[in-house]
Design goal:
The complex is a heterodimer of chains A (343) and B (326).
Chain A lengths: L16 H26 L14 H8 L7 E3 L5 H7 L3 H8 L34 H13 L6 E6 L6 H12 L4 E7 L2 E2 L2 E2 H4 L15 E6 L3 H16 L5 E6 L17 H11 L1 H11 L5 H24 L21 H4 L1
Helix pairs in contact in A: 1-2, 1-3, 1-10, 1-11, 2-3, 2-8, 4-11, 5-6
Chain B lengths: L1 E4 H15 L3 E5 L15 H4 L4 E3 L4 H13 L3 E5 L10 H14 L9 E6 L14 H5 L5 E3 L4 H13 L4 E6 L6 E4 L12 E4 L4 E5 L3 H14 L4 E5 L2 E3 L3 H11 L2 E8 L4 H13 L8 E5 L8 H7 L3 H11 L5
Parallel strand pairs in B: 2-3, 2-4, 4-5, 5-7, 6-7, 10-11, 10-13, 13-14
Antiparallel strand pairs in B: 1-8, 6-12, 9-11
Helix pairs in contact in B: 1-6, 3-4, 7-11, 8-9
The chains are: A alpha/beta (343), B alpha/beta (326).
The structure holds thiamine diphosphate (TPP).
Amino acid sequence: MPFQKKEFPDKFAALSKEDKVGLLRTMVRIRAFESRVEELFLNRRIPGFVHLYIGEEAIASGVMANLSKNDWITSTHRGHGHAIAKGAQIHRMMAELFGKTTGYCKGKGGSMHIADFSVGMLGANGVVGGGYNIAVGAGMSSMIKKTDQVAVCFFGDGASNRGTFHEAMNIASVWKLPVIFVNENNQWASTTPTSFATSVARIADRAKGYGMEGYTVDGNNVIEVYNAAAALVEAARKGKGPALLECLTYRIKGHYVGDPEKYRTKEEVQKHFTENDPIIRYADWMKGKGLIDDAALATMKAEAEKEVADGEKFAEDSPLPEKEDAYNDLFSFSPSEFPEVVK
Amino acid sequence: MKTITFSQATLEAMREEMQRDPTVFVYGEDIVRQGGIFGQFKGLPEEFPGRVRDVPISETMIVGAALGAALTGTRPVADMHFADFIGVAFDELVNQIAKNRYMFGGQANIPLVIRAPDGIINSAAAQHSQSVEGWVQNIPGLIVVAPSSPATAKGLLKSSIRQNDPVIFFEHKVLYPQKGPVPEEEYLTPIGRAEVRKPGKDVTIVTYSIMVQKCEEAAMELEKEGISVEVIDLLTLKPLDMQTVVDSVKKTHRCVIVHEAVVTGGLGAEIASQVQEKAFFYLDAPVMRVGAKNLPIAFSSVLEKFIAANQDDIKRAVRSVLYREG
Ligand SMILES: Cc1ncc(C[n+]2csc(CCOP(=O)(O)OP(=O)(O)O)c2C)c(N)n1
């Protein structure tokens, strides 16, 4: 997949060793969470729909390392990785997947609706392309309150064909809103290949139509993602306006857990996984630089698995909602104030 | 009391709330240069620079961004231009705004107002004449209000802006130039409470928005026939103040529901259903509904008038629940 590369300043080079290791840890934690969630779903311990982020971890990790808790993101149906990288807690995410009261949404959301407003994670979204304008609204808040907060909108290649994309990109550009649109081009939208459904070869090219800057990076190279996001986020913070960043990646797992995947070959998938796993690539790079060794990597993975196992235990031990809890959380006022509202 | 137009009343509400809270801002199509198609934003942009904004013709953005802004510490007021255009942004309303608080377990307040000018006016035809409250009645998670006068417009708009939940504010286009008394001092009109506009003992009319005045006028004429009509102005359409309605029906034993919107699947259906559930044994006649015929609003004024409900329809319905001819 050829694309024109833009050299962003190498902000990554200036990161401390700790921060460089931190990028890897975020990816490893996402992988551990998603791998266990896949097993739990297949064992029928988690209901609903689950879309895994496996193979795309470098994007959330690389982008989020440039954001603070005061910045906002909007996420997608494939949102677990975004949540973890933004600082959501794994045990509360797991509890949500189990439909427990201790989950982020008290069991009212599930996989497609995890949000943690306390860390600026404005929510996954069950509607493809539903996040753009929410991110635009967050950018408006930043403008009205004259803060330097930035909003990042994650979206898929399939989502780039929604009309909402057009309206959001246009206003963001016209108003120079601090919104970065991060496209995760994993080459598939459910069973449809990107090339089949998309009018341009590079989604980044669509930025031109909005007078916006658009760039494509190797989304499985966390350093590239980090550097691109660093430049774009900083520019947005300084009032220079929005940008579109297309991150090329590949959806390693089925569209959802349980997808029979009749539309592609196992070989195609395997090739991507063995040759282009973002975690292996970055870990190898770090090893080469002497930033991490096999033992440390093994420890990191073990810690991540333990965190996930603890989260699972927490979820298991947590109570299910009471039936009557269904009446809560619809409005800011209590249902007893307006019985007509819900009964 | 002072006498101002409905349009001025909404402007006063905006001004007072924007002065009170710097996080309130308003945007919509053609509200800065034009002052709103009904003059309802005149002068506001000069008074609050940067906080009154024109936007591109992008309704999904207008509605969707209101959610993003509300979630992140501001109180947006989004103007729909015409209520009919809500359809363009239905996903934003139904799946994003209305679901957000519930779906995410009550994590965030959603203080946003969508102002939606609705109703039949001057042959505006099928796509600029609708009353679309029926569309949103079915969606849990929204608050819907519909003022009927300058005073209720001001009080309800102020309450809507202060509400920590999404509010759709239906304002009938015919009401904008109409004048009425508005208190000099600051006040709020509570959301969720209906008001009895005219007390009566024979029949209860439940209505809202533009139809309140038509029902009041019809009631005056019916008085001459010896019929005493109680007129209830709902003001809030969601949640419905059924207590006020049911109390009235228990007294009058008869109920007619009047709205400008199409009768089929309209608010009248919901109210009639609740009335029979809650006051069946008090009823002396079937609950009647009055509204537009089940047709789009046509252009030619002959057709437009025929399709819409008028005072004669209201009077006929009232007489019919009293088993009177005519
Ligand atoms: C508006 C809308 N249309 C269709 C769907 C069903 N759907 C869910 S995910 C998906 C594919 C999305 O593809 P993409 O945006 O590329 O994201 P990816 O799944 O590849 O991460 C579809 C069609 C939906 N949830 N919402």
